[in-house]
Amino acid sequence: MPPTPQPPHPSGDPPGARVRILSHRRSDAESVGDALEAEMRLAGYSAAACFAVRLAWEEAVSNAIHHGNGNRPDGRIEVATAVDGARVYLRVTDEGEGFDPASVIDPTLDENLECTSGRGLLLMRAYMTRVEFEPPGNTVRLIYERSAGGG
Amino acid sequence: MTAPQSRLRIRKQDQITIVEFVDRNILDEANIAQIGEEIGTLVNDDPSPKLLISFANVDHLSSAALGALITINSRIKAKDGQLRLADINSQIIEVFRITRLDRLFQIHPGTREALASFS
Predict the structure, then answer these.
(1) Closest CA in chain A for residue B77
(2) Model confidence pLDDT, tens digit, residues B48-83
(3) pTM of the prediction?
(4) I need a surface site. Which of A53, A140, B21, B106 has the fewest CB within 10 A?
(5) Which residues of A touch B (CB under 8 A)?
(6) Does A66 score more than 70 pLDDT?
(7) Cross-chain Cβ contact B67/A113 below 8 Å
């Protein structure tokens, strides 16, 4: 009998994605980031690809904790990760009300160069193949495709 | 309560303060806040700060760390001081380019070039 195709996860994660609930402790984000990097290396991704995904991961989690959950000590974020030979998938969902990504300033404009925030989103978009916010904006999906990233 | 361990290695050469990071990854917000405070104290204590920040051994850096560097830059500028960055690896230099912060900061390949650039 052919294998039954797995239905998509209700959250929209790909089949096989690992879902975890993280606290705001630094060690939580770090251990998932380390595991992600290890999985990528095992799947043959380059150091540049690992750097790109690690950076995007850190920025997405930091946004969720600070902007989404307002640094509440008891805040939680739900994350999903999946690594295969073709792509790396990340999802980060916070407990906030969401936001409009279009409302974030462009920190690369001369007049904004000295602003101290707003670069997380820019870096996620620069390093990942796709960055998608799901309305109301408290879920972000980040996809790194090996063919596009070269690694 | 004991003071937290310094996240910086600091040395003086002539009138220039040279700062290196203890951590390879500058990602933890609490550490970044501490780094900002420690460098802020160095800037406050110097009437005409000349600061060289070396990124030798730094592998990862977040946007929060960039924000802290921008704050340091503004404080140094307000005192007519000088800030130079050096020893930034090729992956992190790309982060400065993407954010266009390579236009805001004076970045030098190595410590020697950075030291020679102070007026």
Answers:
(1) A114
(2) 999 999 999 899 999 999 999 999 999 999 999 999
(3) 0.92
(4) B106
(5) 26, 30, 47-48, 51, 54-55, 58-59, 62, 66, 107-108, 113-117, 119-120, 122-123, 126
(6) yes
(7) no
